[in-house]
Write a structure and sequence with these properties.
single chain; alpha+beta; Antithrombin, Chain I, domain 2; Alpha-1-antitrypsin, domain 1; nine-stranded mixed β-sheet; 8 helices; 21 strands; about 20% helix
């Protein structure tokens, strides 16, 4: 067990003791999106559920100590520094990406597995990593109310792939992802991805960046979802102008006087506490400074170092409400960050995943998320706040509620142009990061 304290923290934040062993509840069934996807146990060329009926066994907890959380923070910093922030609204869950990548690498040879461990800076074996991640994901669900969902699909158009039972057992015990094979010649992978997102990841509608799929490869997807409310609510809303790259746009801004100031090189920002110990952070680049430059600075600070720059000075902030929904392939981002071999085409990278020798690799690394930021919190119902504009007064709270009509501080930090944002868990591990570019 361990406790992490911020240099300027207003209260100690510690990782809750994980006292009880747990069993990952495994659910491996999903409805199929089309008539040609009916399951047939004797024919791998049709859509087939590999994980239905498999049960998870009790596992030993691997307490997520300082070394593990440091490894995740460093890995998140690599993603932050490698991401192409600035082209569109985005949301990435580093934890979800790491979990589903680690699952796939369990089907790789020992050299590829060691590359992942070295990339993360974790000493030990792939089994240690499995135990760490299973324990951490269980903690997020229990303490932070954040649930991770995962799935993998194997293109078996050649009708020659027999999946290893040992790989499926590792998945059931530690990851609980749904697994399928299908024939890309007869089925459209995007349909399966959308069906998984709606039925298992519990995500509403979202769009795909492009047509996803590569022949005879493994596609993996993950999502992190949960509702988190503010510790202190926002005080009012109003319509205002956001200056995006494609012009001025009017949108709804919300205001808080319970944020704490952040100052880093090239940007100003704030940190705001959430009810479950999480912290929301937003960074506004200085005039003439790009989002990419700020992301590079943040990655050099190892991301979690942002909270070391938090001061006791409260600040009033004005920031847009927004919602980002989508599924994006981050395989190129992971390669850019330094993890290369699992995504190498034309080689039998995932040699332990299939019983028969085939050239399998990770073709798509998909992170699907819905991230709603508003007066209620993250993915939370909107709270009642006082609107400054007369036409919005119908949303005002009941008379017995106390609402501040105006900001306390005269100096208001207004996020009226593209910015970066992060959500940290109670141990300063980033569970979300992204960019807001335009309403």
């Amino acid at each position: 067990m361990f406790s992490v304290k911020r240099k300027t923290a207003r209260k100690g934040i510690s990782f809750s003791a994980l006292m009880l062993a747990f069993i990952l509840t495994f659910v491996g069934c999903a409805s199929t999106p089309s008539e040609d996807s009916d399951s047939n146990a004797d024919n791998y060329s049709t859509y087939r559920n590999l994980t239905e009926g498999l049960n998870a066994n009790p596992i030993a907890e691997k307490i997520t100590d300082y070394n593990f959380t440091t490894a995740i923070k460093n890995y998140s910093a690599k993603l932050c520094g490698s991401a192409s922030f600035g082209s569109s609204n985005s949301v990435i869950s580093p934890v979800a990406l790491l979990s589903i990548t680690s699952l796939a690498v369990n089907g790789a040879d020992t050299v590829t597995q060691q590359e992942l461990l070295d990339f993360l800076g974790i000493s030990g074996s792939i089994s240690d990593l499995n135990e760490y991640l299973a324990t951490y994901v269980s903690y997020l669900k229990r303490n932070e109310k954040l649930t991770l969902s995962g799935a993998f699909w194997i293109n078996n158009s050649s009708d020659s792939i027999s999946v290893s039972e040992s790989f499926l057992k590792i998945n059931a015990d530690y990851y609980g992802a749904s697994g399928y094979t299908f024939d890309s010649q007869n089925s459209f992978f995007n349909d399966y991805l959308l069906e998984w997102a709606k039925s298992e990841a519990k995500l509403p509608d979202f769009s795909l960046d492009s047509t996803l799929y590569d022949t005879q490869s493994v596609s993996v997807a993950s999502s992190l979802y949960g509702s988190i409310t503010w510790e202190t609510p926002f005080v009012f809303s109003e319509k205002s102008v956001f200056f995006s790259a494609d012009g001025e746009k009017e949108t709804t801004f919300i205001t808080s006087d319970s944020a704490y100031q952040l100052d880093i090189s090239g940007a100003k920002g704030f940190a705001k506490e959430m009810s479950n110990g999480c912290t929301f952070v937003a960074l506004l680049p200085d005039e003439g400074v790009s989002l990419a430059s700020v992301a590079s600075t943040v990655s050099g600070m190892k991301v979690s170092g942002l909270l070391d720059y938090e001061t006791e000075n409260s600040i009033t902030v004005k920031i847009p409400q927004f919602r980002i929904s989508g599924a994006t392939d981050y395989s190129k981002l992971m390669v850019k960050a330094g993890l290369i071999t699992p995504f190498r085409t034309g080689e039998n990278v995932l040699s332990a995943l299939a019983v028969t020798p085939v050239q399998l690799y990770i073709g798509n690394l998909i992170n699907a998320n819905v991230f709603s930021f508003g007066s209620g919190g993250i993915n939370a119902p909107d709270a009642d706040v006082t609107f400054k504009t007369e036409e919005a007064t119908e949303s005002a709270p009941a008379p017995d509620e106390t609402v501040t009509e105006e900001p306390i501080n005269e100096n208001v930090l207004e996020f009226n142009r593209p910015f970066l944002y992060f959500v940290f868990d109670s141990n300063n591990v980033p569970v979300y990061m992204g960019s807001y570019i335009s309403p």
